[in-house]
Predict the structure.
Amino acid sequence: MVTEPSEASGAPAPARVLVASNRGPVSYTRRDDGTLESRRGGGGLVSGLSAIGSDDDALWVCAALGEGDREAVRRTEGRLDPADTGGQRVRMLGIEPEVYAAAYNDVANSTLWFVHHMLYQTPLEPSFGPEFRERWAAYETYNRAFAEALAQEAAEGAAVLVQDYHLALVPGMLRALRPDLRIGHFSHTPWAPPEYFRLLPDDIAERLLLGLLGADRLGFLTRRWAGAFKECARAVLADHGLTAHWPEDGAVDGGPPYLTYPRAGDGPADGRTYLAVHGLGADGDFLRERAHRPDVAERMVTLREQIGRTADGTDRKTIVRVDRTELSKNIVRGLLAYRQLLLDHPEWRERVVHVAFAYPSRQDLAVYRDYTAEVRRTADAVNAELGTPGWTPVVLHVLDDFARSLAAYRLADVALVNPIRDGMNLVAKEIPVLSERACALVLSREAGACAELGEDALVVNPYDIGATADALHEALTMPAADRTDRAKRLAAAATALPPQRWFLDQLEALRA
């Protein structure tokens, strides 16, 4: 039980809505003079979770990611200055750097991410020995720090929304500490099928599932990922009393899907975990406003110069992709498909440019550095093989520039989004919203966004370079009326559940 502090105590009031995520809404860097510079984050997750606003009843709990963040924690005891956070109450956890690195890099990003995106080269990896067990212990410590902070900060009966695979153990840990709370967890990644999930050691697979089943509600980006979680739970926990209710239509046959599991000390009804789908959409209003600021207009001028014109002075077509150099994004095969387009249809030479933005990601991991280098090498090879003095086939940028990304969105004739596997992929939703040329969308069938956009996209197998090249040709030659109609429907579907509505829908369901 949590008692309300007296006004005279000076202690922060317990929060009635809490959000927990690895990354918070603000980060810090230390200037040369020793002062700290704060920077507000962006993206769909930050936009959605910012719906908690600056209400004193709401609190965001996050981890310190770097030395600047840790210094801010030391100076503020982890309770960040609202002037830095846009008025939000934020508690930042100063987890030991070694613990954080093992939990975040070695378990979350090098193991769980690889499992859910099915990225392992299984003849050689993974291999779970004593070193991994030490890293797993750090992951448990990291999750426990969040659970204890949430338990300390939450008011009686508060709603807690935990985010993503970094914090998969938090719901179960928090349930043990505070059974009075309403706990939700949302997975922003795909969920692996049982045969792949069970690459994990049996006890760890079980621990992850039981951790998540500590929640009252589990959220997923698509029904496909929710169904995969259900199948993993049935396969791994079959001997532990788990049962599944999975109607084909949630509006019929007894309501939404749920799993039951006998939690220690709880009655059967208390062991029920609902599975829900909330397909995060693009923030259309923000994107349209931001894309028409002066810095974006400047980037458009530069990009047009880099793209150039044909010999007869007409605008070249543009195929646009914007990604982090994340292994699952499939950038190299996208470049090879573009090369194949130019080989199969030489009439496109000098008439089209692939504008490819590949912003470095997780460069502290060698496999990501190697992948970034391969992206550069492949783009250079295409340009060396097929380029001419007046035409650079691939315009590649690797330095993150949000304004430049928005400029490319506006210039796109074709959007190429071909991930190997992706929980959703907001780029697939953002480009159709901003394109001024009624862009066609070439979309991987393995992107979560395909469930919502597939009818109006050109859907491809992300491993099939030839088929992707054919889809690019079809996109470039699509009749104008067809392109326009598809683009309108894509933009409408993309913005159907904007980030703040996405968050509030989950909060309202958790409180119900």
